[in-house]
Design a protein that fits this description.
The protein is built from eleven helices and 14 strands. It is α/β, with parallel strands linked by helices. The strands form three sheets. A six-stranded mixed sheet has the order 6-7-8-3-9-10, with helices on both faces. Strands 2-1-4-5 form a four-stranded antiparallel sheet. The structure holds adenosine-5'-triphosphate (ATP) and magnesium ion (MG).
Length: 326
């Protein structure tokens, strides 16, 4: 039996307005978030994607109680943040855009200082544990300012997970890291995910979101344009699905004659030894296509469904301004 998802974060009609500099006695309103609603399920890695200034950091800051919403409500573990923020914050950990370590303190002292806010009775053990988990134990006595960028990022994550939070927010976790450090950090994030731990990532790195996130919301100018798993978004945005069939040799004219008559295929294109088939349901059409091709003497090397990447999805959404939010 399919277990129903448990909602851990619920954002309801959230708006956040900032007031810019006064011009002619009136301050300009900046609608950083404009009536957004979404839910995050327990145990998932959820991604909030969007260009610079879309409102990603503001969303995290509102959810964590650092900013008061202008309108709307936020529930964490079914409790209203407005009334319970100090208790609920104890179940959250944050990696902020600027890591926020104290550079003149050692690695250990940074953790002792931040850990002291959580009233942990086994703080020293926890510190040792997270330093080992994040590969920083050898550097525990080094000043945080002397660490490399990737190590600083890991120290900030160590701080974020010290109190074993149920929800961890990562704001642009791999920004500015080299490719190897970024891959290592992504592995670490995957390892932090557990059945009872939810991870919320802000990113404009689409490949990162594709690799990590089970569901994403695409935010632009304070509004959610789309939300769902990458494959659901792909289905919503492309009416026709694509299947690519590679033959052993180039397509011969006889085969081309057959292609036109294959049922369920709306359209096809050919490039060298590859045929791209477009149909409303590739699960239905693919066996028929394969049978027809084999019957007419085609040697098939590979049959693959084309999966649209998050990058394809994102670019299509950003291009297509008339597509409205879900
Ligand atoms: N404290 C503030 N005062 C005024 N305006 C603000 C404030 N914080 C954010 N904004 C504005 O709100 C909008 C959303 O900003 P936010 O930092 O949430 O975007 P973001 O999606 O995190 O962008 P980035 O990818 O660049 O980090 C921007 O127009 C920003 O200028
Ligand atoms: Mg941001």
């Amino acid at each position: 039996m399919l277990k129903s998802m448990e909602t851990v974060i619920e954002v309801k009609n959230l708006s956040k307005v900032f007031y810019g500099k006064k011009v002619n006695g009136e301050s300009k309103e900046i609608w950083a978030l404009n009536d957004i609603s979404f839910q995050v399920n327990k145990g998932e890695i959820f991604g909030l994607l969007g260009p610079n200034g879309a409102g990603k950091t503001t969303t995290i800051r509102c959810i964590s109680g650092l900013l008061n919403p202008t309108a709307g409500a936020i529930y964490v573990k079914n409790e209203n943040m407005k009334y319970k923020s100090s208790i609920l914050r104890k179940s959250m950990g944050f990696l902020t855009e600027n890591h926020g370590n104290y550079e003149s303190l050692t690695v250990s002292d940074n953790l002792s200082f931040f850990g002291s806010f959580y009233e942990l009775n086994n703080l020293n053990e926890r510190i040792e544990g997270v330093l080992k988990e994040l590969g920083l134990f050898q550097r525990k006595d080094m000043k945080a300012g002397k660490l490399s960028k990737g190590q600083k990022q890991r120290l900030a994550i160590a701080r974020a997970i010290l109190h074993n939070p149920e929800i961890i927010f990562f704001d642009e976790p791999t920004a500015g890291l080299d490719p190897v450090a970024a891959v290592n950090l992504r592995d670490l994030i995957k390892n932090l995910k557990r059945k009872d731990r939810t991870i919320f990532i802000n990113t404009h790195n689409l490949e990162e979101a594709q690799k990590l996130c089970s569901r994403v919301a695409i935010l632009d100018e304070g509004k959610i344009k789309r939300m769902g798993s990458p494959s659901d978004l792909s289905k919503e945005l492309w009416e026709l699905q694509e299947m690519v069939c590679t033959l052993k040799s180039n397509i011969i004219p006889q085969i081309e004659d057959v292609l036109k008559d294959i049922p369920m295929v709306s359209n096809y294109t050919i490039e060298d030894n590859r045929i791209h088939f477009y149909s409303t349901d590739v699960n239905e059409s693919t066996p028929v296509i394969v049978k027809e091709l084999v019957k007419h003497g085609a040697d098939i090397l590979e049959v693959k469904r084309k999966v649209h990447s998050l990058e394809d999805i994102y670019l299509k959404l950003m291009d297509n301004q008339e597509i409205e939010g879900s």
